[in-house]
């Protein structure tokens, strides 16, 4: 308990030191806020957004877009990743398309997604789903294929069906990989929703009437620090969920499936 408390205190101290060095370097070299804002200015923008209820009124839309996109993208990623990991034929035909879509910059596709899905919720959800899709897809494939070969052979010698092999060995073995992919997908989906939507709303002003991407315009702050403050505010609940996913993935016993 004492060791955990000390490690937590050291972690907080490290965060404070990083912010202090960041602040000092920006002041020392007189870096403009649109290139790299000072942490103090980010916290001021965050306070103004909360005090004016801007973030409180708009965070719900951003979280809704992120979570729906996260749910859609990760569900498709798990299903497709399972199919690719368990079937060489499926991998042979689908893997070139997976690599092709992964190489495409997702934020650069945002204007095209707007044309296809309109200016409402659907376009933001699709963008978040695309970003959330690939981290879980890769982790699912790697996790399902990381099952110990001796255990696989043992279960096959006991006449285990493919479903039993998947349910009792491969899936439990892949859970740490899957939860790690979920944590990454969740935060990346939020990043694209806040930062990507800002670029879209600047190029297409009617693209959003709600959401934290409106913060730079409504707060009157420089874009960099307003977006950083928006991300800092919206990341709190999602970061808590991502940490919880990480703790589940690291839970004792996960590394020894089948016992």
Largest sheet: none
CATH class of the largest domain: Mainly Alpha
Percentage of β-strand residues: under 5%
State the CATH architecture of the largest domain. Orthogonal Bundle
Number of helices: 10
Shape: extended
Number of domains: 2
How does this model look, in words?
Helices cover 80% and strands 0% of the residues. By secondary structure, it is mainly alpha-helical. The chain starts with a helix and ends in a 10-residue tail after the last helix. α3 packs across α10 (223-249) and α8 (162-203) runs antiparallel to α10. The chain folds into two domains: 1-31; 34-249, MetI-like fold (Orthogonal Bundle), CATH 1.10.3720. Mean pLDDT is 75; it is low at 198-212, 214-223 and 252-259.
Features:
MetI-like fold, extended, 259 residues, 10 helices, 2 domains, mainly alpha
Quick gist of this model?
80% of the residues lie in helices and 0% in strands.
List the helices and strands and how they pair.
Blueprint: H1 2-29, H2 39-51, H3 54-86, H4 88-103, H5 110-117, H6 121-145, H7 149-157, H8 162-203, H9 215-219, H10 223-249
Helix pairs in contact: 2-10, 3-4, 3-6, 3-8, 3-10, 5-6, 6-8, 8-10
């Amino acid at each position: 308990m004492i060791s955990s408390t000390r490690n937590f205190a050291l972690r907080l101290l490290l965060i404070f030191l990083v912010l202090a060095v960041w602040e000092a370097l920006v002041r020392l070299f007189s870096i403009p806020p649109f290139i790299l804002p000072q942490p103090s200015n980010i916290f001021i923008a965050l306070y103004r957004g909360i005090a004016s209820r801007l973030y409180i009124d708009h965070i719900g839309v951003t979280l809704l877009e992120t979570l729906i996109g996260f749910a859609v993208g990760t569900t498709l990623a798990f299903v497709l990743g399972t199919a690719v990991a368990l079937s060489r034929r499926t991998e042979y035909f689908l893997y070139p398309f997976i690599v092709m879509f992964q190489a495409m910059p997702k934020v650069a596709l945002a204007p095209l997604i707007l044309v296809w899905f309109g200016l409402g919720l659907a376009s933001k959800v699709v963008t978040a789903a695309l970003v959330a899709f690939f981290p879980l897809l890769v982790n699912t494939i790697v996790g399902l294929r990381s099952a110990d070969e001796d255990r696989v052979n043992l279960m096959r010698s006991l006449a285990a069906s493919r479903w039993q092999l998947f349910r009792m060995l491969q899936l439990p073995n892949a859970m740490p990989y899957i939860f790690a992919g979920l944590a990454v997908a969740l935060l990346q989906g939020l990043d694209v929703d806040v930062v990507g939507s800002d670029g879209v709303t600047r190029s297409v002003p009617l693209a959003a009437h709600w959401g934290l991407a409106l913060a730079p315009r409504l707060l009157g702050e420089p874009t960099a620090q307003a977006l950083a403050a928006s991300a800092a505010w919206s990341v709190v609940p999602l970061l808590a969920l991502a940490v919880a996913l990480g703790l589940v993935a690291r839970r004792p016993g996960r590394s020894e499936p089948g016992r």
